Amino acid sequence: MDKENQIIGYVVPIFRGSQEYASGLSDTEEARMKESAGYMARRNLFTSGLEMERTEQTSRKVSMRQSAEHISLSKRIYENEEYHKCMNEDSLMHAPEFVIKPRSHTVWEKQCVRLHCTVSGWPDPRVIWYKNNVTIDPMARPGKYKLQSSYNVHSLQIDRCDFDDTAQYRVSAMNSRGELSTFASVVVKRFKGEVDETLPMPRHGIVSEYGITFETHIVDGFGVSFGREGETMSLGAMVIISPNLARYQPEVQWYRDDVLLQPSKWCQMHWSGDKATLTLTHLNKEDEGLYTLRITTKTKYETYSAYVFVRDADAEVEGAPGAPLDVTCQDANKDYVIVTWKQPAVDGGNSILGYFVDRCEVGTTHWSQCNDTPIKFARFPVTGLVEGRSYTFRVRAVNKSGMSRPSRTSEVVAAMDPADRARMRGTSAPWTGQIIVTEEEPAEGVVPGRPKELEVAEATKNYVVLSWKPPGERGHEGIMYYVEKCVSGTDSWQRVNTEIPVKSPRYALFDLAEGKAYRFRVRCCNSAGVGEPSEATEATTVGDKLDIPSAPGRVVPTRNTATSVVVSWEASRNAKELVGYYIEASIVGSKTFEPCNNKPVKTTRFICHGLVTGESYVFRVKALNAAGLSECSQESEAIEVKAAIGGGIPHASPTPPYGISILECVRDSMVLAWKQPTFIGGADITGYFVDYREVINGVPGKWHEANVKAVSDRAYRVSDLKENRKYQFQVRAANMAGVGIPSLPSETFICEEWTIAVPGPPHDLQVTEVRANTLVLLFKPPVYQGRDPVNGFYIDIKEADAEEEAWRGVNEKAISTNYMKIKILKEGETYVFRVRAQNKAGVGKASEPTEPVLAETKPGTTEIVVDIDDDGVISMNFACSNLTPDSKFVWSKNYKEITDETRITVATSGEKSKAIFNMPAEDDIGIYSCAVTHTNGESSSYTLSAEELRKLLEISHDHKFPIIPLKTELAVELQEKGRVRFWLQAEKISANGKIQYVFNDNTLSQGEKYKMNFNKDTGVIEMIMESLLQEDEGTFTFQLQDGKATNQSSLVLIGEVFKQLQKESEFMCKEWHRKQGPHFVEYLSYEVTPECCVFLKCKVGNIKKETVALWYKDGREIFIFFLHKMVAVHFLDVCLKPWKDTSTLNLTEQVFNVSSTALKIQSTEEGIRLYSFVSYYNEALQVTWHHKDSAIAFTDRIKSGVVGEQLWLQITEPTEKDKGKYAIEFHDGKGGLKRTVELAGQAQWPNLVLLFSDRARVAGGLPDVVTIQELKALNLTCNISGDPVPEVVWLKNEREIVSDDHYIMKFESGKYASFTITTVNTTDSGKYSILVKNKYGTESADFTISVFSPDSKK
């Protein structure tokens, strides 16, 4: 027969490095022995026929070698490309992508279906499966769903499909780069004729079989049971199923701690048709736990549970510890396996010194000890196994009294390559008696390469476990390994396994010096030789890396039944690899503790059974991990064992929640919300449990659990409901003491999808910071968003006893935050609040109202105080004197709890807590609040605005770098006789302050030239100089020091500034000397009287008896009665004798001639104004206006007038006819003057019309006269318009006013000008004006202020 066409009966792949891995073998030892024996037989058979097959393979050598070289080259190219990709991680990162999408399936009922997909992406995507947009939880229905992920291939397996599984399934892949989803449908069909097609087919829920609804009841159930190691125990219960069908078989399942049990030599199950029985053939502590019987029909399922306790068997040696438990094997390989176990609860009264691990080869009864010295770590690597053989293991504990009984033996494990184990678990082909070798013989002379990815997998003080991966270059021959070590810091390598190389890529090193650091490396070897060593590991210090957990926290016992107590405790903090807890109980006064459980529990709540009714017990708890058992917790308070109901002692669990409402409803789920219980019990609430029941024709059904795991929020989505069905709900609260009683059933709600456009109601309303007139309302946004996202909230308020119509809004404009401070309360009133959400479609339904809140400030209420210490550290401080032992300070920013201490550090001591700003910046702006738990609403808040932050930073800087504050900087003023005074005033300086006077970097001292003075009461510091000389030009500085606070102020007197000051000083000196005798107080001036007479005048002071006034004209003495005849240019002198002082006046003819400015055009609010100014004006002056050489006839639209020395012509609402030439003529009887202007042009006219709306103007708001009482405050406001924005100047008696503490002038938004006098006094009386000006014009408005005192008015 042709070799190429012969039938291959069985193919044995050899020298193939498979990377697949599967854990565990068949369920029985006999099957495992057969598998191992079969594998070894086939292997030996292949070896014996190797020579024969070599001749048959010679013809294929060349082609296969070429193929192998091609594959090897491709692999190297691929690895090189992958290496360069990894050099730049950013180029490798990408969003998830479905390489293979899941495919839709149509299957028959009771068949299995698997959906699978392949996903690429980096970082590796997280994959979640959904059924009708609800996350699939395999633990919710054990055995129903199986999720698997391996090498980016993800699968969902659905076992025993029924109509409930007909749905749309979605798989979602998500990583940091994005998220992607894809869909597949599963349709489950029945064989035709199995169901009456006329019956309605429900879309959701459990489907009735044959149209029959089964009722299941479990009666005569098993109770809490106690057994001892080595005994046999049976658990059973009667099951009544109606209607009773002769051949109907329900699904009977047994669970231990929510893990489905399978028949084995340790447990046997039996169903007699009306009774379910579970027999535990040989009790061990592994059998302890909560056992659950589950009877499932097509319409519903029924469960029944009870706890089974297994005590230790009597010790063979008195005082010996109990046996370890849960012995398992991990990471099995060719000659290596890791054995793990759990420590026993009973140590025999003495600490356990360690553990011994024993092994037994399958097929023998001989047990051999694996370790010579006891180890304390509950994990041990066993080496030296023989490849191809199977083993079981057990563990014994030892203390100083002796050895414990051995533990239950582990499952059988075979010492073989994981790839071989995976291949053996596959389906074998039928045996035909033929063996065909599919690969060529091993290559000769190939030395293996370096092992890869060497690492320290585990390190304790007893051993170190190394793991690595085989090299890629190893030929087709099997390889083994040598392990080398060296002390860190040296290069002296020492081979560990000198005699026999190891076969597994795992190795455990013993007898290392504790506390020393080592490095390790591995070499590969085969018949061709020993390869190069791998990369050495980092230095590893020998010692336990896993710490024993800390002791659990406070233990709280709570009454349960007449023979049991519920024990709760606080979890062990920062515990790593926690295995569970042991609970111990002791009768008060006995001082002897007995274990309540012999198998660790992972929860922080346990029901201790088997107690004596009427006795008082105390409890304590220990935590354990692989490193050992923790110290015992503190003993609990004593509790008497009696039933909790009717005991007369308040229960420690919470009271029922209330106010159940619906937040969202879709076709198969509803979101509930409820209010917190009024009494939380003896500890904080840890979560809530929700139950639901269906209401059919007004008759409520049986309650079902909606959530197995407690939810912390006061809102929960109840899934797997039926559309258009009616449901009721109840909620129970739980704390560390236990689960409270359920709430009253809610209203009946219909499960139908909401389609309204507006959002649903907000929920979880909370009131905090209650004061006499304010409070803060917190709430959560609605779950149902409506058609569009929520964009705001409205708050409603009403008195608690008012009607529904009394609801009124607090805010007119919607707020975007989930909180609001309400400031419209009246002290003593009681209010309720509610919240409504809005989106683009409108405002949605209101939330449930809050509980009534009394607006009052409770005695002892404190507020947050901001403090800055001497080092400039800014902190917010809150104190509470009403603390309870369980009270905690909770700081929040914008009403979200602060958990990240990057910016804020919270420190609490006793009754005070402070939040310290680490690095104050703009990111810290917000509302900070502090609430104290377990109090009567103690809370307060503080708003840190940008302005407040700026002030705090300034103060902080001043505290860090203190500066003596100055009221005034260094200034200079001239005094009598021309003296020069340099002075400044410090705002605050102590009597110990020191002053240093410096001029041009030279220190000045007291002397004839410099007179220095420091008034410590007022803080005024001054230095006086009699005069300024040329060498005094420069910089003067006052340097102040008061403790560590410093400051300085300088004044520069150089150039023109110095010369001007020196000149004024000299002038004042001369003036002082002049005024020592008769002198002119007011110099010679003139005044023109209405009769056109010129009146010359002057004022003289310090007149003495012998003083004489002499008048001179052009240097010649004149008599006064000739003065009125002079009309030409004159120089008049007045001389005072005997003390000579002179005043001169120059009179020119221009005083008496008419003069005027050019005629100008101005745009006003009313229209256009033409004006000119004259040097003086009286009634004798004749004025005439002309338009186009014709005299103007004045009307209501065209008017003229005089204001002061301004002559004006006003044209209201100008038109095209008003264009042209305008002129004004003056005539005083002696002569005339004419001024003209042209009002025309394409550019000028539109601008003039436009300018009168853009010019600066005062729109109004100021009164004509203001009469105000002395010591009051005055505030006036007016509107300003103009484009560009006008300049604003305020005047008093025609003099500009400067803004200071007395006069405060503001101009805001370019529209509003305000004038404020903080404290009015009589000197403020007078005429005031506001002057506004821009490039298009100027306008002013006047008003008068009259100030009176109360006494004067009377």
UniProtKB/TrEMBL annotation:
Pfam family, one: I-set
Record keywords, A-Z: Cytoplasm, Immunoglobulin domain, Muscle protein, Repeat, Thick filament
Gene Ontology terms: biological process: sarcomere organization
Gene3D superfamilies linked: Immunoglobulins
SMART domains: FN3 (SM00060), IG (SM00409), IGc2 (SM00408)
GO cellular component: M band; myosin filament
Primary location class: cytoplasm
Protein name: Myomesin 1
